[in-house]
Amino acid sequence: MKQTSLDQLVNAFTGMRDAGTGRELLVALVALVLFVCSSPRGRRWLAWGPGALLVLSPLPLAAAALFPDATDGPRLALLGIRFFLLASLLQSMLLLVVVSVWERISQPMPRIFLDVLRLVTIAAALIAILFESGVRADNLFTGSAVLTAVIGFAMKDTLGNVFAGLAIHAERPFELDDWIQYDAIAAHVGRVVEINWRATKVITLDEAYV
Hints:
Elements: H1 5-14, H2 16-19, H3 21-38, H4 48-56, H5 59-66, H6 73-105, H7 111-132, H8 137-154, H9 156-171, E1 179-181, E2 189-195, E3 200-204
Antiparallel strand pairs: 1-2, 2-3
């Protein structure tokens, strides 16, 4: 009897151990638990990132089940699951190094830098899965360069603000609760209440946010 695509999908899922996916799931879980157990109590909330990726890992299987007649459904579902597991593992390892180890001997890393590194781990996981799926390196990097150029042009103002925020975090010209002059007028001063990706928020003497 000829197997349907849905049958192939179920067989692929139940045979994940042979493909290494079951082992990847176990390693990702162990890395997440290690971070939660070794991190300071006030930083354990960072586990939501790799934890969410683990929770989302069955999503490609559900998506493939909605389209049982898709030719490559089972293969793409497995690749999708492995992407989520690999991204979760890389994020947990990053948090172990940065939060559980580095921050115990140095000052905490600014959140904006940690967010950038977490995005890098997701990109690394995606590139690894694309290589595994058979995408040629030259096609991958050519496509990435074109996509980067398009995104950079469309979001040049936003990216400029992001890089300015990174520079502020790196140079630390001021901290939260510092009083600063926010333009050329001497009377325009305020207290720094937030420093994020896109902007630095200041509350003025008139209790207005700038």
